[in-house]
Design goal:
Number of helices: 1
Shape: elongated
Helix content: 10-25%
Oligomer: single chain
Number of strands: 5
């Protein structure tokens, strides 16, 4: 018999995916405000001068750093979890 899940137990969270040049998989960042970080990194990508970016996150990656000119793409991903 299939286990039934109560829809109230399912939560949603948004993560920020950072695709770096030369990397096969994106960095998946869990932060308090993914939309704000998305906008911050998008502005860093537009800046012609490369900058060093370091962030603390609340997911499996606790701290991450990279150079802004190595960002190939950004994405917001919504996930369901219990």
């Amino acid at each position: 018999m299939a286990q039934q899940f109560n829809a109230q137990n399912i939560k949603k969270r948004t993560s920020l995916l950072v695709f770096l040049k030369g990397s096969t998989a994106p960095l998946v960042l869990y932060v308090d405000s993914p939309e704000a970080l998305y906008e911050e990194l998008k502005q860093a990508m537009k800046n012609p001068t490369p900058s060093f970016i370091e962030k603390e996150t609340s997911g499996p990656l606790k701290k991450v750093c990279f150079i802004s000119n190595q960002i190939a793409a950004l994405a917001l991903q919504e996930e369901q979890y219990m």
